[in-house]
């Protein structure tokens, strides 16, 4: 039968405004938004949101669930990963597919990942394609990936095993531009890192802090600037910079935006809140990831970028490993430690607390960077990212009065630590609604494996952003 829910007494927030309105959900979709809604089915369930913000559910466009990074497999699959996301106020994720067997075609990984997610995901999901090599077949298949499969973004790497060289990057940018896809890039200068890394290892400098020293921020900034220029050369191909960690890279992005170039950027809570001093702790391996945490001076520059719109989205790069079983060896030798940290559950509360409650950003801006812009850039709007009638009823209720000490024992991922242990946050997502169903409430997971659906995304259109 039909199911309906009416949310009353809350403060509705979207990317444009706040308003005291009621919101009616019927059969998983937002049916009405109005000052007073009187026309609803008799068996409608009423949720009293007094004192709460009612916002579009979070969209985390950068996760790595169930990923095999060669030396290890990450510990969150699409069940524990999306469960954790849901408990943190996120209602949709876009996962970065890992590399497939050498030479595989684009559809191969999509099939593998659809298998990973089906029957497991508790909230909606999609995937970014991954370009691990360029040949005629890959170039040809990009069109069907976008227009038949609904995969309208692809990532390429400028470092790691399957990095693209400049020729490959240019070819990818050109073709992805033609087929209406957004090119996302992991920008780091591979040659500079390889040289530094081998010098450090040769000198026996392998403790966790040398991981950061082996890939200084100039490695990232150089690759950002290079990709911006290659994108311009590729007939102004749209470009999305993932996990921006530093102010110099941000300056290049800002310059490109000033020149009206089609460039967007993402940062992550870890780069806004944590710094490279953590690598000197005895558990420094917990924070090993790429790009690494940066000197403290960079944090404020990134916040500035969030505030002035040079940074468009905040995602997590959730790539969780067990500290005790998989990462601990990185304390002595960063070169044998799988890269990545958990974070999908803490993104929304950390940003709400450090952004909204601390007065750095408005609630509207919070919605913009966590849901609205992600939806626009990745072909989900207006199905998601807003509170419009007809949109999916993906909603998060935030209580700004709740003070919480983050502790891993209260989180829902499958890792054994959080980088934010004992951080205090002001405000907490007290209810998460996915397609009209309450999937998390007051820290308790209420969702169902397999309830999440694969979302067919729209082609990229820069005129609609
Ligand atoms: O260290 C990280 N970030 N691991 C995940 C893969 C990536 O580079 O995004
Ligand atoms: Zn990356
Ligand atoms: Zn990543
Ligand atoms: Zn703990």
UniProtKB/TrEMBL annotation:
The keyword Transport does not apply. Residues 53-439 form the Amidohydrolase-related domain. Carbamylation allows a single lysine to coordinate two divalent metal cations. It comes from the Bacteria. Its EC number is 3.5.2.2. Keywords: Hydrolase, Metal-binding. The modification N6-carboxylysine is found at residue 155. Transmembrane segments: none annotated. It holds the Pfam family Amidohydro_1. The keyword Metal-binding applies. One of its GO terms (molecular function) is dihydropyrimidinase activity. Its cofactor is Zn(2+). InterPro entries: Amidohydro-rel, Hydantoinase/dihydroPyrase, Metal-dep_hydrolase_composite, Metal_Hydrolase, Metallo-dep_Hydrolases_sf. GO terms for cellular component: cytosol. Belongs to the metallo-dependent hydrolases superfamily. Hydantoinase/dihydropyrimidinase family. NCBIfam families: D-hydantoinase. This is Dihydropyrimidinase. It comes from Shewanella halifaxensis (strain HAW-EB4). The lineage of its organism: Bacteria, Pseudomonadati, Pseudomonadota, Gammaproteobacteria, Alteromonadales.
């Amino acid at each position: 039968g039909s199911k309906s829910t009416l949310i009353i007494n809350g403060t509705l927030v979207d990317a444009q405004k706040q308003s005291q309105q009621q919101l009616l959900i019927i059969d998983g979709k937002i049916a009405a938004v109005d000052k007073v809604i009187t026309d609803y089915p008799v068996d409608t369930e009423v949720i009293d949101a007094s004192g709460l913000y009612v916002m579009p559910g979070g969209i985390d466009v950068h996760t790595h669930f169930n990923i095999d990074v060669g030396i290890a497999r990450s510990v969150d699959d699409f069940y524990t990963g999306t469960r954790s996301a849901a408990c943190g106020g996120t209602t949709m994720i876009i996962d970065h597919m890992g590399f497939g067997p050498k030479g595989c075609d684009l559809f191969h990984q999509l099939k593998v990942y659809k298998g990973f997610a089906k029957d497991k995901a508790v909230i909606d999901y999609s995937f970014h394609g991954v370009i691990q090599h360029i040949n005629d077949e890959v170039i040809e298949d990009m069109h069907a990936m976008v227009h038949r499969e609904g995969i309208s973004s692809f990532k390429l790497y400028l470092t790691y095993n399957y990095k693209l060289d400049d020729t490959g990057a240019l070819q990818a940018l050109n073709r992805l531009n033609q087929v209406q896809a957004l090119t996302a890039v992991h920008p780091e200068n591979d040659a500079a890192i390889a040289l530094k890394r081998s010098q450090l290892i040769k000198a026996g400098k392998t403790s966790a802090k040398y991981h950061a020293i082996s890939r200084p921020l100039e490695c990232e900034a150089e690759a950002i600037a290079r990709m911006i220029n290659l994108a311009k050369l590729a007939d102004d191909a749209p470009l999305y910079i993932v996990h921006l960690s530093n102010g110099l890279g941000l300056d290049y992005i800002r310059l490109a935006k000033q020149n009206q170039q089609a460039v967007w950027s993402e940062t992550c809570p870890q780069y806004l809140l944590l710094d490279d001093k953590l690598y000197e702790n005895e558990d420094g391996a917990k924070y090993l990831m790429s790009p690494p945490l940066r000197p403290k001076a960079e944090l404020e520059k990134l916040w500035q970028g969030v505030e002035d719109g040079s940074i468009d989205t905040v995602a997590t790069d959730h790539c969780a490993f067990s500290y005790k079983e998989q990462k601990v060896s990185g304390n002595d030798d960063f070169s044998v430690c799988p890269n990545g940290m958990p974070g999908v559950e803490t993104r929304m509360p950390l940003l709400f607390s450090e952004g909204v409650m601390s007065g750095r950003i408005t609630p509207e801006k919070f919605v913009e960077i966590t849901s609205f812009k992600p939806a626009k850039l990745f072909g989900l709007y207006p199905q998601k990212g807003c509170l419009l009638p007809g949109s999916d009823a993906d909603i998060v209720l935030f209580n700004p009065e709740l003070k919480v000490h983050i502790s891993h024992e209260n989180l829902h991922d499958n890792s054994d630590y959080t980088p934010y242990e004992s951080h205090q946050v002001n405000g907490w997502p007290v209810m998460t609604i996915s397609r009209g169903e309450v999937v998390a409430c007051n820290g308790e997971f209420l969702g169902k494996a397999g309830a999440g659906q694969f979302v067919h995304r729209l082609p990229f259109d820069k005129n609609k952003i």
